[in-house]
Amino acid sequence: MFTWESLENACAQCRACALCQTRTNLVFGVGEKSAEILLVGEGPGEKEDLDGVPFVGKAGQLLDDMLKIIGLDRKTNVYIANVVKCRPPGNRDPLHQEQAACLPWLREQFRLIRPKIVLCLGRIAAGALIHPDFRITSEHGQWFEKSGVFFMALYHPAALLRDDSKRPETFVDLKNVEEKILQICSHTVLNKY
């Protein structure tokens, strides 16, 4: 059984796929380690690789704004991780074998956190965690339950930066998340309540 420290140390030594050869930093995760809400993206981009922190830069700022709308904050009441912990070259989508090599690390993070809600940020995370044929355009905002944990996919913040027309749908999805939090999480989760 891993502790947070031993898990991060073991993950930093991982050589299960070629992504370890080109990374600058391992991007393990950030946030409250006892959070009831886990956010999962696909993998680090260039800025994340340089900083060693998920969701920094413009997409990270947008994610922080999205969370703030519903009383969440990366420092106090959510944990943020990725399917893969090392940056794919050129910010390409992580390959299936890279995802498969890294998923055990995410599963261990999941085991330590024991979230009640998992928000998949984008189609790759949703395909890895909800079901492999996930279609973000038609299935975002829907709840999926697995072993008592509720999963939902939102558009990835980078997609929202590229296409403003998806923002109204995302706002509706966020309000749906807020409603679910009020139903199943401790009443102290949201900062504004």
Structural class: alpha/beta
Uncertain stretches of 5 or more adjacent residues: none
CATH fold label: Uracil-DNA Glycosylase, subunit E
Q: What's the alpha carbon Rg, rounded to whole Å?
A: 16 Å
Shape: globular
**CATH level-4 homologous superfamily:** Uracil-DNA glycosylase-like domain
Spatial order of the strands in the main sheet? 1-3-2-4-6-5
The count of helical stretches stands at: 8
Helical percent range? Answer: 40-55%
CATH class: Alpha Beta
Largest sheet: 6 strands, mixed
Measured between the Cα atoms of the first and last residue, the distance is 36 Å
The run of helices and strands is HEEHHEHEHHEEHH
Average per-residue pLDDT, rounded, comes to: 95
The CATH architecture name reads 3-Layer(aba) Sandwich
DSSP strand content: 5-15%
How many domain modules?
1
Architecture overview:
The protein is α/β, with parallel strands linked by helices. The protein has a single domain, classed as Uracil-DNA Glycosylase, subunit E, CATH 3.40.470.10. Helix content is 42%, strand content 13%. The protein has helices at 4-12, 46-51, 57-69, 96-113, 123-129, 136-139, 157-162, 167-184, and strands at 30-31, 37-41, 79-82, 117-121, 144-146, 149-154. It has a six-stranded mixed β-sheet, with helices on both faces. The N and C termini lie far apart (36 Å).
